[in-house]
Amino acid sequence: MTIMIPAWDNGILQPVEKLEAHKRGLKHKAVSVFVMNRGRVLIQQRAMDKYHTPGLWANTCCTHPEWDEDASDCAVRRLQEELGITGLCPTHREQIEYRADVGNGLIEHEVVEVFVADAPGDLRITPDPAEVMATRWMDFDDLRTDIAHHPGDYTPWLRIYLRDHSAAIFGDLLRAG
User: Fold this and answer.
1) Whole-angstrom distance, CA of residue 88 vs CA of residue 98
2) For this structure, is 110 an active site residue?
3) Which phi and psi angles does 176 have, rounded to 5°?
4) In terms of residue numbers, what domain contains 144?
5) How many domains are there within the chain?
6) Annotated catalytic, 74?
7) What's the rounded Cα separation, in Å, for the pair 60 and 117?
8) Which of 62, 82, 108, 113 is catalytic?
9) Is 30 exposed, middle or buried (0-12, 13-18, 19+ CB in 10 A)?
10) Which residues pair with 61 in a beta bridge?
11) What pLDDT is attached to residue 1?
12) Tens-place pLDDT, residues 114-148
């Protein structure tokens, strides 16, 4: 199945095949979600069959919106598809643009709408094994420390989010935790 994503090619936003966008390093739309619970962040380990960054730990979920899909609808959809999570209402936090080498000659150049959702302690998580090989809750400070000590265990975008944008993404949630 060919997946088309909204990407800027020659300055024009148009549907581009996902792998082609990453091979060419085209700037494209994306959505990232962080699910939080009392100062803890739900992270996922990407499945080994993912075409880039397999086996690395990432934020709760991320994806590319469909052509006419609203970013908030995309966030809700992807939580359900990747992790079986339903019933959360992600809140938009920030738009971030980054460019990162993700290995195998692929470049992520994303304009990301970042969402955060507050979850109850009994949140039901049922990961799709084609997408996610493991999940875990980590205290935010422990996550930052582990990334500092073991950066190669984490996706480039998670490292960028926590290094450069954590106050905008998590600020009030961490103070409330």
Assistant:
1) 27
2) yes
3) -80, -20
4) 4-176
5) 1
6) no
7) 10
8) 62
9) buried
10) 33
11) 58
12) 999 999 999 999 999 999 999 999 999 999 999 99
In the chain, what is the straight-line distance between the N-terminal and C-terminal CA atoms, in Å? 42
- Lookup: tokens for 67: 């052509």
Residue type, 113: E
Alpha carbon distance 34, 112 (integer Å): 13
Structure tokens at 155: 């996706």
User: What would the pLDDT profile of 83-118 be if each residue is shown by its tens digit?
Assistant: 999 999 999 999 999 999 999 999 999 999 999 999
- The encoded tokens of residue 101 equal 């080498």
Check 61, 74, 82, 110 and give the catalytic one.
110
Q: Nearest to residue 160, comparing CAs of 75, 98, 91?
A: 98
Q: Look up the CATH number of the domain holding residue 116.
A: 3.90.79.10
| Mean pLDDT, all residues of the chain | 94
Q: For residues 128 and 65, what is the distance between their CA atoms, to the nearest angstrom? A: 19
Give residue 147's identity as a one-letter amino acid code.
I
pTM exceeds 0.90: yes
- Dist CA 91 CA 79 (whole Å): 13
What's the length of the chain?
Answer: 177
